[in-house]
Amino acid sequence: MTKIDLRSDTVTQPSPEMRQAMYEAELGDDVYGEDPTVNALQDMAAEMLGKEAGLFVSSGTQANLVSVLAQAQRGDEIILGDKCHILLSEAGGTAVLGGVFPHPIPTDDNGLLDPDDIANAVQPKDYHRPRTVLLCIENTHNWSSGKAITPEDTRRMAAVAKDAGLRVHVDGARLFNAAVALECPPAALVEEVDSVGFCLSKGLSCPVGSVVCGDQDFIDEARRWRKMLGSGMRQVGVLAAAGIVALNTMVDRMAEDHANARRLAFGIAEVPGIDLNPEDIQTNLVRFRMPAGNGAQLAQGLQEEGVIIAPSSHDLRMATHYGIDADDVDFTIAATAKVMAAVA
Ligand SMILES: Cc1ncc(COP(=O)(O)O)c(C=O)c1O
After folding, report:
1. 85 close to ligand 1 (CB < 6 Angstrom)
2. Rounded-to-integer distance, Cα 165 and Cα 168, Å
3. Which of 168, 219, 251, 282 has its CA 20 to 30 A from that of 273?
4. Over the chain, what is the mean pLDDT?
């Protein structure tokens, strides 16, 4: 039976070239800083993002966690969007493990935070108040259908934070998707920010890993937190090798995922019962609403047709990625129309 898994870009399998590089990787003990493949990946990532140094970490969640904990002390406050991954989908780790207080502010449909809201969220210097130390931005913005945040918008948000003496972190789990969609170098997206993490294990199709980049002092502190979190990994070049292949071969390829996402969005937007403006789709995430609340039935029906999406009543998502082609998209559109006709 056909199996088209659109739950997430995290389901991607490594390419044959990645598997070969993993097999052949030169290894050392990374806790001693002696794994040449990890070091090469970290240097490569830092250079691509215009930062001094990089740090290989186990996941996007850990990239955010070490970035926040390296820049905020217990009792400090961070400003972030009310629909961001750090707030909604990381099990409250920054509060649990770091004692760092999240201060959510509204997020618009494009994944942006209003500079006035940022300025107003900064706590006055008063010993009754937590100290505001960090602004977190997400690019691409997952909950906003993978919207790519432009360098100008990042600059506008970061400028307010900088004026107030805050540091700025970008959760760039899908930063390279943003760079491809906006046709700009990835470094241009993080010029004004102090720290950025991106995932190798999503559209870049590696089996494991993320990289955090920033200045050397920040990376030293993040390394310390990574150690405390139990992720000082040893001969981890076996994973980093896939990351190097990904940065060399998978970035431009993501344009195909974006084209497939738009094809999918334009197709399913025609299906009665699905609420979606396909023009909103810029990268590889297609979010849509099911006003009648029958999303779980759609997910169930699609599963019977061989298409997997995460079940939810009203808000659903399909993600395109390495391994999904235009035929899979067309099959999914047809299956969606068939299932929805039966549901109606
Ligand atoms: C925007 C964003 N940040 C962070 C993460 C966390 O990545 P991981 O699943 O590797 O922990 C995700 C995962 O989907 C994400 O979408």
Report:
1. yes
2. 10
3. 282
4. 97
CATH code that applies to domain 13-249? 3.40.640.10
Q: Which residue has the tokens 């990089």?
A: 54
Pocket lining: 9 vs ligand 1, CB cutoff 6 Å: no
Q: What percent of the chain has pLDDT over 70?
A: 100
253-343: which CATH number, 3.30.565.10, 3.30.200.20, 3.90.1150.10, 3.90.226.10?
A: 3.90.1150.10
Burial 250-260 (b: 16+ CB within 10 A, else e): bbeebebbbeb
pTM value is 0.97
Please list the residue range(s) of the chain that carry CATH number 3.40.640.10. Answer: 13-249
Tell how far the Cα of 83 is from the centroid of ligand 1, in angstroms.
13
In the predicted structure, residue 344 carries a pLDDT above the cut 90? no
Q: What 3-state DSSP class applies to 249?
A: helix
Q: Which of 107, 149, 199 is the best mutation target for the ligand 1 pocket, counting ligand atoms within 8 Å of the beta carbon and taking the most?
A: 199
